[in-house]
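A reminder from the course coordinator: this example appears on the midterm review sheet, so study it carefully.

Given structure:
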């Protein structure tokens, strides 16, 4: 038995009934980890722990992913939570952006593109799109409450109310009011960020009608998240659904202990993250490590706090608020977190939307196939009047061989 296993067993014994339940839940969750764990086990036979640790350090020091920064700002949510955002302004003085300006043509500086990130990520998950659009059009990137550089959710920390997608929609409105007080906006959301945009549309239809010029939904869902199988057989997913909410509550209550265990099993979690984030076999190891860092940086109590919000998410009716707007609906065809069928359902409710299914792509499609995603976003910006036609986005950090997208809708 490993030292980590001994510590875990001792924790279960010391913790009493809640930890016995957590142990049972862990067994069920083990079904999810089986494929990744097998890969990790094989790796351990050939690569020592010290070498793996050294490789991670090298990747961290060599990679610049997530290093782009803009002008910082802070919005305040309706419960007092401080929401951190950054603004990238258009380049008015030439310089490094001149080549991109030639690719994009003259831009309309009045339009601001606002990017909302997904669960357990941060604004840095848009790194490649940020690099491509930098200096070309005004962009705002923000961290959802309790994620990235934003403050811990005040209502949640004080135990007043749980996180909800509706709250995230109100948070986005606070960011828009602070960072984009006037002028047209384009909204882009990945996963939970797309749900956040839907909540904004549900609660602020006048704002959408008056200010929003286009919307991009990337790897997201309008509802029925409780039906997602995560690539598991029926028996496994049913077991996980029964026990996961309870075990997450227990883990959130013992966050310090769980974080120690999380660090001790870093290799297993890295395998899980790669399995559920990407589908390509040739993803750049630096990009895979970047995704790992983003997810690892989300505290376990925040992971536990946000998870229940997805079961109640249902914003299909809110999509009607976007009728008549240019809309991009894009997903990886091997996404096991928000399967591509959910994007097809969104497109079915918005018949004029452009539906793009990216072959050989998983949940973090904007990091896995960045050029393709940026291309489609650039076309959306043309339709929204943010940049002129003839946009041709170049190579801004390929992380795998680029596939051809399948278009529908």
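Designed residues:
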């Amino acid at each position: 038995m490993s030292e980590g296993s001994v510590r875990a067993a001792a924790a279960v014994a010391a913790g009493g009934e809640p930890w016995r339940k957590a142990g049972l839940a862990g067994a069920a969750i083990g079904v999810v980890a089986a494929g990744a764990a097998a890969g990790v086990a094989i790796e351990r036979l050939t690569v020592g722990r010290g070498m793996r640790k050294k490789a991670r350090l090298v990747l961290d020091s060599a990679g610049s992913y997530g290093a782009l920064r803009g002008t910082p700002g802070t919005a305040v949510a309706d419960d007092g939570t401080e929401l951190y955002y950054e603004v990238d302004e258009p380049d008015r003085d030439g310089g490094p952006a001149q080549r991109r300006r030639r690719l994009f043509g003259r831009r309309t500086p009045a339009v601001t593109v606002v990017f909302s990130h997904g669960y357990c990520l941060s604004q840095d998950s848009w790194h490649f799109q940020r690099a491509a659009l930098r200096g070309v059009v005004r962009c705002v990137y923000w961290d959802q409450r309790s994620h990235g550089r934003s403050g811990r959710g005040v209502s949640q920390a004080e135990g007043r109310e749980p996180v909800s997608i509706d709250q995230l929609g109100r948070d986005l409105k606070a960011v828009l009011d602070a960072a984009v007080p006037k002028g047209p906006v384009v909204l882009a959301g990945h996963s939970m960020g797309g749900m956040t945009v839907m909540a904004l549309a549900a609660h602020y239809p006048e704002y959408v009608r008056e200010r929003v010029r286009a919307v991009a939904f990337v790897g997201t869902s309008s509802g029925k998240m409780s039906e997602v199988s995560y690539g598991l057989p029926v028996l496994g997913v049913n077991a996980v659904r029964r026990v996961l909410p309870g075990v997450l509550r227990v883990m959130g209550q013992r966050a310090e202990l769980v974080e120690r265990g999380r660090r001790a099993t870093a290799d297993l979690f890295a395998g899980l993250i790669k399995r559920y984030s990407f589908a390509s076999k040739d993803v750049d190891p630096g990009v895979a490590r970047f995704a790992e860092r983003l997810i690892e940086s989300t505290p376990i109590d925040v992971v536990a706090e946000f998870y229940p919000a997805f079961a109640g998410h249902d914003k299909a009716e809110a999509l009607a608020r976007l009728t008549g707007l240019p809309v991009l609906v894009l997903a990886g065809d091997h996404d096991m977190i928000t399967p591509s069928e959910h994007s097809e359902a969104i497109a079915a409710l918005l018949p004029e939307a452009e539906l793009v299914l990216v072959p050989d792509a998983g949940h973090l499609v904007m990091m896995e196939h960045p050029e393709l995603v940026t291309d489609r976003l650039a076309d959306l910006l043309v339709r929204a009047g943010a940049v002129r036609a003839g946009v041709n986005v170049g190579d801004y950090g390929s992380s795998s061989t680029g596939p051809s997208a399948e278009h529908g809708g």
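The CA atoms of residues 31 and 236 lie 6 Å apart. The beta strands are 71-76, 82-88, 112-116, 138-142, 185-190, 212-218, 327-332, 354-358, 406-408.
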